[in-house]
Design brief:
The complex is a heterotrimer of chains A (118), B (137) and C (507). By secondary structure, chain A is mainly α. Helix content of chain A is 61%, strand content 0%. Classes of the chains: A mainly alpha (118), B mainly alpha (137), C mainly alpha (507). Chains in contact: A-B, A-C, B-C.
Chain lengths: 118, 137, 507
């Protein structure tokens, strides 16, 4: 399981970086999404994968004796997913707006020369 | 989308999904669920409605613009977050009523926080999606 | 000690923003609420600073969960003074925005987003938990995306694409670093991390994790070679927005660098050399960029990059004197950089352009206003006894003591280049006769027709920040005592750790 995840994370990071380096803005966005997913899986993997019970102690017991699953990585990933959901939806609206204004998907067309500054 | 089956189904699905989202919202404190997921389900109910009818019909159904849900939800969540401050406890401490309520069970500040999140999520998701859909029409 | 006063700076901005959302589209009410909220936030920040300065480090555990498990909020002198400076900048920009921001932008929610941004900044300064720091960073960048794109023309939208892409990338690196850090230590509380990372045996792994943080914060604070997004985006938004970005957004990256690298990763020789190396190139590239630019705001953007290098260099030298100098520079820089972008906005209002070739004769027309601007501009250069001078003394002293001669050379080049570009700007914008331009229609004076009250709304914030800058320069011994206190806190972190975790954890 760990090995599969390691390979998957590597693939996600590599393809994310590859997509980032394209000139198309949509591919840039896809690259950022892939990188974000890679980071989430990385947290999941490094948090330690254990088959355990939820870390909830019975009313009667004082100590938790069984193997338990660490709840923190899940909380972190959930937060990161919510945040990236917000950012990505904003980014999509922005790219749409850019496409309307510039009528191009190419990052190289995004250079208003200095002479046109106010 | 011009599918009669989907259109008829969505009329029935909308109330069912909304009811289900409230169920998810209420069980969220001890079981999987909560304000965020509940809000997403409720938002999906309206999105499905806007797919089959159109965005304007859904907006008419909602009566208020979804973006006005955001400040309400934020205010509710923020108040329940900072309410413990007024009784001298650290921020975000759960305050609970002593007696359980019928149907809902124990009510505490966490529920109001979840309710705030629920409203914010509906507001944000619908605002974004409706903006995009009206933009491309 | 549990003290809710810590979160007040966050709470004030949050409630101001929520209140503003209820007044959507009522721009006059929005302006008043925003100024009142910023004023209240400043009072709260002054109160917090006084409390921390007199009584030592304050902590608050959210929801009462014990320290390494829950989220801690910590206010030491460093974070509370950053909150104080943020509130000064926030108040100034809030007043300036009342006239400086077009009504169209206000209708799209400029003020609520502005207060969410300030809330995020205050949260980032006050948190004691590294993942919580990430969340506050995200609050800041989402708010800054919206401010950057709001009501955008073509150039503005173009700048924001680059800004957005680089900042999301930076956050991903930061998140990766947090993931690895959690994997090797099993904790997220910064005080706890400080103890656990120090005890780790695999130092190479620690260095690699540290480099993830350097990349993440490096992009955010525009350190060489990751600074390109800054000069290509900061000249596009309205001046009030550029002021808060230039004054605070890169500095929150610097704050995080100082916090992480004095508390969690105590830099070894490799990291120190790396930081000094990055600082030298940051200063040089910023310098070269500033010298060739002809637009005031583009030039200021490169000056931001140049001066970021001063602070990173101070961190890289890592002696008490160096950190004192770098922090002193940080304080001075927040005030001055906010102010120079406001000044650029005012020049734009006066003349309708920011191109230095088309400007001129400001001194003849507005002598008092020009003198006010001169104070700020020459504080930026660091003409003694103005504020930019004192931190450089400390930095030079630290450089000679530590034998970092290349960095000293870069500092000297950076300082002289700043002097050069500012005097060039002074002569071109203020002294030179106003050039005759055929196409007069574009260049209008938007300032003259404004009512007296609106004029004062534009000038007051500049005066307010200039007075603080003057105080930093002339009352340098007071600032120095604060800064020395912070540097001592950074060198000996045990009071911080003790305050967060409680005394018995240290044994």
């Amino acid at each position: 399981m760990e090995l599969v995840l390691v390979i998957l994370i590597g693939v996600l990071y590599a393809s994310g970086i590859f997509m980032l380096l394209r000139r198309s803005m949509v591919k840039l966005l896809i690259g950022l999404i892939l990188l974000g997913n890679g980071a989430n899986l990385l947290i999941f993997l490094l948090g330690g994968i254990t088959k355990g019970k939820p870390p909830v102690i019975d009313n009667a017991a004082k100590l938790f004796t069984d193997i338990y699953a660490d709840p923190i990585p899940q909380a972190l990933i959930l937060t990161a997913i919510v945040i990236s959901f917000g950012i990505q939806s904003f980014a999509i609206v922005l790219l749409k707006r850019v496409y309307v204004l510039v009528n191009s998907d190419d990052l190289d067309d995004l250079n208003t020369p200095e002479e046109e500054d106010i | 989308m011009k599918s009669t089956i989907l259109k008829t189904a969505s009329n029935y699905l909308l109330p069912i999904l909304l009811l289900f989202s409230i169920f998810i919202l209420l069980r969220g404190h001890y079981y999987p669920g909560g304000g965020f997921v509940g809000g997403l389900i409720a938002a999906i109910a309206f999105v499905l409605h806007s797919f089959t009818h159109n965005t304007d019909a859904t907006l008419k159904l909602l009566r208020i613009h979804p973006s006005s849900l955001i400040p309400m939800g934020l205010a509710l969540a923020a108040l329940s977050m900072f309410a413990p401050m007024f009784v001298g406890m650290p921020v975000m401490t759960g305050l609970w009523f002593d007696e359980p309520f019928p149907v809902i069970g124990m009510i505490g500040s966490a529920l109001f926080f979840d309710l705030g999140v629920y409203l914010v999520v509906i507001g944000v998701v619908l605002t974004i999606l409706f903006t995009i859909s009206q933009y491309s029409e | 000690m549990i003290d809710n006063a810590i979160v007040f700076p966050v709470v004030v901005h949050l409630f101001t923003a929520i209140l503003l959302l209820f007044f959507w589209r009522k721009t006059i009410a929005q302006r008043m609420i925003s100024i009142a909220g910023s004023l209240l936030a400043m009072l709260v920040a002054i109160g917090l600073f006084a409390q921390v300065w007199d009584g030592g480090i304050l902590t608050m555990q959210a929801a009462g969960w014990e320290a390494p498990f829950g989220i801690s909020f910590v206010a030491d002198v460093f974070s509370s003074s950053m909150v104080l400076l943020t509130s000064f900048s926030g108040l100034a920009v809030s007043i300036y925005s009342a006239t400086g921001i077009a009504r169209g932008r206000m209708i799209y929610g400029y003020f609520p987003i502005f207060h969410f941004l300030l809330m995020g900044l205050n949260g980032a300064f006050l948190t004691g938990d590294i993942f919580n720091l990430y969340v506050w960073f995200e609050v800041v960048i989402i708010a800054s995306f919206v401010l950057m794109t709001l009501g955008g023309r073509k150039a503005q939208i173009e700048g924001s694409v680059k800004y957005m892409a680089m900042n999301i990338l930076a956050s991903t690196f930061f998140l990766t670093g947090i993931g690895i850090l959690y994997g090797i230590t099993g904790t997220l509380n910064m005080a706890d991390l400080s103890l656990k990372v120090a005890a780790l045996e695999n130092r190479k792994l620690v260095d690699i994790t540290a480099i993830f943080f350097i990349i993440g914060f490096g992009i955010k604070s525009a350190v060489f070679p990751l600074y390109f997004w800054l000069p290509s985006s900061y000249h596009t938004p309205p001046s009030a927005v550029a002021a808060i970005f230039g004054g605070l957004l890169t500095k929150v990256g610097i704050y995080a660098l100082f916090r992480i690298f004095t508390l969690i990763f105590i830099p070894d020789d490799f990291i120190r050399t790396l930081l000094v190396f990055l600082a030298i190139f940051t200063i040089l590239t910023g310098t070269f960029g500033a010298v060739i630019k002809n637009n005031i705001r583009r030039m200021f953007s490169y000056l931001i990059v140049c001066h970021i290098g001063f602070m990173v260099g101070g961190l890289g030298m890592y002696s008490e004197v160096a950190i004192t100098g770098a922090l002193f520079y940080l304080f001075h820089d927040i005030m001055v950089k906010t102010n120079i972008f406001l000044i650029a906005g005012l020049i734009r209002k006066l003349r309708g352009t920011m191109n230095m070739d088309k400007l001129g004769g400001l001194y003849a027309e507005y002598p008092l206003l020009s003198l006010l601007m001169a104070i700020v501009l020459f504080s930026l250069v660091g003409i003694p006894p103005l504020s930019g001078f004192w931190p450089k003394i400390h930095l030079f002293e630290a450089g000679f003591m530590g034998g970092h001669y290349a960095l000293i050379a870069a500092l000297i080049i950076g300082s002289f280049a700043t002097l050069y570009v500012i005097s060039l700007m002074w002569s071109k914008v203020f002294w030179k006769d106003r050039p005759i331009i055929e196409d007069e229609g574009v260049l209008t004076d938007d300032f003259q027709p404004l009512s007296k009250f609106r004029k004062s709304l534009l000038v007051t914030p500049i005066v307010f920040l200039a007075v603080i800058t003057l105080y930093i320069g002339l009352g340098a011994e007071n600032i120095a005592s604060v800064v020395k206190h912070i540097a001592r806190e950074m060198k000996d972190t045990s009071p911080y750790i003790e305050a967060v975790l409680g005394t018995n954890e240290l044994q």
